[in-house]
Amino acid sequence: MADPSPSPFSSSPGTTPLRPPSARIFWIVDNWPSILGGTVLTHYAHYQYLSRVRSPHPNPVKNARFWALASGGWMLTYLGICTGIAVAQAKVNHYLDPDNRLHQLPTMSADFWAGYISGAVGIIIGNPLDLLKVRLQARPASASSPLPLPLPSPTAAAAASYLRHFESPASLVTGSAAPILGYGALNALLFVSYNRTEAALNRALDVKSSLWTTWLAGAVGGLATWVVSTPTELIKCRAQLSSPPASSWAITKDVWRAEGIRGLYFGGVVTALRDSVGYGFYFWSYEITTRWMGVGGDGVKETNLKEEAAKVLLCGGLAGIVTWVSIFPLDVIKTRVQTQAFQAQAQAQSPERSPLLAAQGQQQQPAKRAGAMQVAREAYREGGMRVFFRGLTVCSVRAFVVNAVQWAVYEWAMYEMGEGRRRPAAAIEPVGQVIANADTFLEQDWIKVFSEQLTRFLRAQAPNLGLRPRDANPSSNPVRLLDYACASGGASWALSPFVDSILGIDIAPAIVRRYNDCAARLGYSPEQVHAVVGDLAVDGELAAEGGFDVVIISMALHHLDDPRGMLDLLAKRVRPGGVVIAVEGVDYKAMRSESKMLEKGDEKGGAHEHEIHQHDVLKTTNRHLVFSEELFRGWFRDAGCDEGKFAYVENEEVSHIPEEASGKVGGLDRKMVIASSVRKE
């Protein structure tokens, strides 16, 4: 085989390969120590400024400088902390899953920042109603309640006091600092834990789209957030109930001074139970409503962006209501447990009027506090079952608004970062369940035209792939080709003039028989060209096959739930210096520039978007992948290929997929792309 080193894979002199957007984000993560040090110094300067010039009761309108410094200090400090969390998370993920075999997931940075942005927006929007919900939950039903609750009894004076709080602009964000600062880390843990748990469950149990695995994965993800949500909830609730008003930072210092880290995690058991059950129903209800509404789901024709956004808003809102209805009694108990009052002096004040914070300079001692079961019993004695649903109406309104906006912002952020909406592996129907009639798919006329275009494209690019006609090099070493997911052999026949022997592999027996029959009709002996049934991901005997000069996978990655893992397996089958080739299709729309198409992942690349009446084989399509140059570059690099010899070429010919196959009115126009590189020596 000709030495591929002089091929156009080589980088042009004086140029540097482009790094994908995620790499630029990870540059920040890789440099987190310097960022953390800088943000700590910034926050220290900000704290010193406040201690000198801030008045006891600053006016948020007149003291704009204070609010600007406060916001900047919080955000910069949070950035330093979260980048450290991201580094630790990346190391743990690499240790547990070095080859990313569990599932092809959105990048951690995309999940992290989309989760943080959406969470922060949701907190800001929902904080006024959350403030009212917490006060309704914590309000005692009678003055004889033995629990040291921090709120006054529900008298007219107390109601007027609440009204005055809401009339102040500052009250609208009371207690919001803690959840805003903590929600990014919480969402990062939540989405990464949820995605990987569901993928692992589906693979281990060999199930397809299962709502109960979605619920279980959400429950595991919710449980993982306990480490962040417990102190965040405790600080938020106490800040919302404190009288006189106190900041989240003051609450944190006071609790730490009195009890240390144990105080911050008071009520952790009931919080963990609430989050586990709640997030199970959260993802379950969002998944079932998106399927019902057809939001980017399998077998559903895509709608325009406005219709899709409206559906996401509705699905997110409904998911929020279902979630809070399922856990509201637990949330009432959690709120009452965490808001039991601290008293500067035992019984110095009545339980109804005791403040959360002691007077300045006083050492707080925690009053004897009840556990979750005692709180639940006392609450039931106060008002029966109704007490566990007090504030549910307000909470439902808040849940709909906040979660509708939160999911919409999350989907938008993922879209802008080039990730789009990716379904977990559960949403992609296993190919093995529809292979019985897979050969009928290849009988369609447009498939034959597509195969002819593939042949022309591959042969035109053969010199760039380091391939030479065998007739011109009869004395060189034999060249072996592995054609994985070979189908009827389009890639094999296209490259046959450049190789000496071909092994085809496909999971569908009918397709393998068709391939071997075609090879015999073309005059190839089984020693020259032969196909077998198998799956590299699970077949140990096939996995031992190696030493190929060329490995190709053509128009198949979009049918796999783990395309990156498969590309890694294929790269291990090729000898050092051999060529790895992936052929895929990208959507083509003449009215949009290619740079814009590449920027917006829903239009540039990805898999087919077929309607429910499509052929069974097409129902396995993972439409949420975007086969861009950046994506392939990262996959090939991670598979051990030479990034300097990576190439990404788009075919000039446009392939038309008819309406009955694409599920789109008028059909779908696509272009083929070839991504290739050389395995490192």
Automatic annotation (TrEMBL):
PROSITE patterns: SOLCAR. The keyword Repeat applies. It is found in: Mitochondrion membrane. It comes from the Eukaryota. The chain crosses the membrane at residues 25-45, 66-90, 110-129, 172-192, 212-229. The keyword Membrane applies. CDD domains: AdoMet_MTases. Solcar repeats lie at residues 106-200, 209-292, 307-416. One of its GO terms (molecular function) is transmembrane transporter activity. SUPFAM superfamilies: Mitochondrial carrier, S-adenosyl-L-methionine-dependent methyltransferases. Keywords: Membrane, Mitochondrion, Mitochondrion inner membrane, Repeat, Transmembrane, Transmembrane helix, Transport. Belongs to the mitochondrial carrier (TC 2.A.29) family. This is Mitochondrial basic amino acids transporter. It comes from Colletotrichum abscissum.
